[in-house]
Design a protein that fits this description.
This protein has 4 helices and 6 strands. It is of the alpha+beta class and 140 residues long.
Length: 140
């Protein structure tokens, strides 16, 4: 299996500084203390974790549905990553996935079963030491 790579650079002191994150095969993503901790418009590392989880889950759900004999048409997943200040410092305390899927050949109960198993089993979910909740909706 290939090794996925990414890099980051930070210039300057914490508050006034700025950084960039670079997935090996993607564009440069800028971030600052303001975009990470103060609600300033822009990106942050937590957003990338959410994107990675949403992407991994969507792809894994498609595979699981096909293996169950269903025919996925589209799977759209968002991730809300909760960052909170705790005694030990800022901590990701949870991630809420919201998934809307259009799938033929599966009923709602089976879809929920497959979605929950996928949430537990996708590689990014397994890599995260944080509770991940899921709200999955099946639309025909």
């Amino acid at each position: 299996m290939p090794i996925s790579k990414a890099s980051a650079r930070w210039d300057g002191p914490f508050k006034e500084g700025k950084g960039t994150m670079r997935p090996a095969n993607g564009g440069e993503i800028a971030y600052t203390a303001g975009t990470r901790f103060e609600g300033v418009k822009g990106s942050n590392p937590e957003e990338l974790i959410g994107a990675a989880l949403a992407g991994c889950f969507s792809m894994a759900l498609s595979l699981a549905l096909v293996k169950a004999g269903a025919a996925p048409k589209s799977i759209e997943t968002t991730a809300d990553v909760k960052l909170e200040k705790q005694d030990i410092g800022f901590t990701i305390t949870g991630i809420e996935l919201k998934c809307d899927a259009r799938v033929d050949g599966v009923d709602a109960a089976k879809f929920q079963e497959i979605a929950l198993a996928t949430k537990k089993g996708c590689p990014v979910s397994r890599a995260l030491a944080v509770e991940v909740t899921l709200h999955a909706t099946l639309a025909s």
